Amino acid sequence: MATLALAGCGLGAGSRPVRVSLLVTQGFGAQTVLARQAPKVVGADTVMRMLERNASVTTRYGGGFVESIQKLSGGGASDWFYYVNGVQAGKGAADTKLHSGDHVWWDRHDWAATQTIPAVVGSFPEPFLDGYGGKRLPLLIECTQTASPSCRAVEDEFTSLKLVASLSCLLCSQYNESLPVLVGPYATLTPAPAAVKLAGPVSSSGVYARFEDAGRKLVLLDQRGRVVRSAGAGAGLVAATRYAGQPPTWFVTGTDAAGVAAAVQAFNAQTLDGHFAVAVIDDAAIPLPDSGP
Amino acid sequence: MTYLRRASPLHAARASVAAAYCAALVTAAFLSSHPLVLAVLALAVLGAGLACGVGSRVARSLWLSLPMGLAIVLVNALVTREGLTVLVRLGDGGPLGQLDVTLEALAFGAKEALLLVVVVAVAALASAVIDPDEVLRSLRRVSFRSALTATIATRMLPLLALDARRIGEAQRCRPQPPGRLAVMRAITANALDRSLDVAATLEVRGYGSARRPPRTRRAASRHDLAVAASAVALVALAAAWPAPFSYYPTIAGSFDASAFAHAAALALVALAPFTQRRGISR
After folding, report:
1. Contact A7 B91 (CB under 8 A)
2. Residues B50 and B121 in one domain
3. Which of B182, B208, B234 is the last residue of a domain?
4. Which of B208, B235, B259 is the last residue of a domain?
């Protein structure tokens, strides 16, 4: 009986997760459709069931696929995607169980450029606060210069959230099961496999920006993956991606030290809230994908 | 499932009208999502069967469809991820995903099972009251050869069943009964011999060069009119005055006076043709 209970089996609705929140947006977080800080949750709900309790939803394929939320339906190259604590789930919403502290974010967006955006920053301080998939992971700040003000500023941000972070040099930790935040100019982060993705296409990284010219140039892309603008010195980026099924890797980076400093300024819940990634050019935070100057 | 000749208004109506009546019953069932309406429709079909003297046939079909209905309820409860009232959590079912049995999925499965029961019952009623020869006669003008082929095929099936029964009885009389394979072989050989005979007979009688028969006019009887009116009214009632009932994400619908009135009206309309028995000999 105990084994069955541990496996999530049992009669009735099950135990209810707490501190759950729900956000429904469209256009990569540009427009909020629904926001519930304390949505209705009954028992051991799944992500889909929680959505259905709190919004007008139509589904397809036996309830496994969301067709519309609040009468906004997918279609063409636009569909509903969801992220739990900023991480795109590997399975359907009807199969994803809710856990305490989960921030569920549904977004209807254009998938012409990529169908896979493995991680987003808009749920910050998640997934550092409660982890993802019901599993909390240790926080690891990896800096190219651990004594740099940017590195310390990122650590201070976590400290203000009462989160304990391990500080280490880049790739110095042998422990893979952690949530790494890589801090430093992009050119110095490239030994990390996940960082290489940021120089690749959006279909690889899921970030609507890429570094070019050995990290000296940051190119911002629109939702179709087209180049909108680019910036050189002083450009920063706060983004997240995943490499080979590992936990998401966050980046507080830039084209140079000034760019990293600019990114650090944007590394807070207020600036990142509801955005897939944020670029900083001329001290202005630009949500990604870029909708143009 | 063969045609049973009885003295009833539905038997007295022409085959096309009786078929339309049965189709209307199925259409009304598909247009209704209210479980009460479906249950009443099932009872109405049973009532129609009793009024036609084929009640036992229809009742048997109801029993036969119950296991299939239960299977539908079970599969729907396990496969569907919809519904918000979780009754049982079965955990992660591998490729089936998160297996939560919800009240809504059970209710929807039960509704689908009821629909199946109605459809199977109507099929049993149709097979018992609609003369297949008359149906095929009416199709001769559309496609003579197809009608002929269908006639022969439908004639052959009961014949094969009779063969099987006859040979089975003979088999049981023997001290050492032969196996099923031997019986099947005998029936198949018999059927092939018979098909050759039928082909030769058709050839000799000149069916190959037959032409489309002329149209034959037949005045509509009072039973034709009553059954046709019932069919039209059934579909119109089900389409124009639906009893709302939805299952997902939560069950929404009531068993109020309106639902009862709708179900009763459908039952009355379905059974109305059987009140008129003038001109039907016992």
Report:
1. yes
2. yes
3. B208
4. B208
User: What number does CATH give the domain A21-110?
Assistant: 2.170.130.30
Span B83-93, pLDDT tens digits: 889 898 887 77
Are residues B270 and B153 part of one domain? no
Confidence band for A3, pLDDT divided at 50, 70 and 90: low
- Residue B3 located in a structural domain: no
pLDDT in tens, B155-179: 777 777 788 788 878 888 888 877 8
Q: Is A52 in contact with B100 (Cβ distance < 8 A)?
A: no
Residues B108 and B158 in one domain: no
**Residue among B84, B89, B249 whose CB faces A8 most closely:** B89
Which residues in chain A are classed under CATH 3.30.379?
139-288
Residue B1 lies in a domain: no
pLDDT over 80 at B153, yes or no: no
- How does the average pLDDT of chain A come out, rounded? 90
B197 contacts chain A (CB < 8 A): no
Q: At A46, is the secondary structure helix, strand, or coil?
A: strand
Q: How far B115 CA lies from chain A's nearest CA (Å)?
A: 18
Q: Quick check: B104 pLDDT over 90? A: yes
* Domain-located, residue B110: yes
> In the prediction, which pLDDT does A56 show?
93
Give residue B184's domain range.
Answer: 142-208
Residues B110 and B160 in one domain: no
pTM metric for this prediction: 0.76
Q: Cβ of A134 under 8 Å from any chain B Cβ? A: no
- A139-288 belongs to which CATH class? alpha beta
Residue B80 belongs to a domain: yes
Domains in chain B, number:
2
Substitution target in A41, A45, A95 with the highest count of B β-carbons within 10 Å is: A95
The verdict on A91 touching B (C-beta cutoff 8 Å) is: yes
pLDDT tens digit sequence for B171-203: 888 888 778 788 788 888 888 898 898 888 888
> ipTM score of the complex?
0.71
Give the residue from chain A lying closest to B81, CA to CA: A63
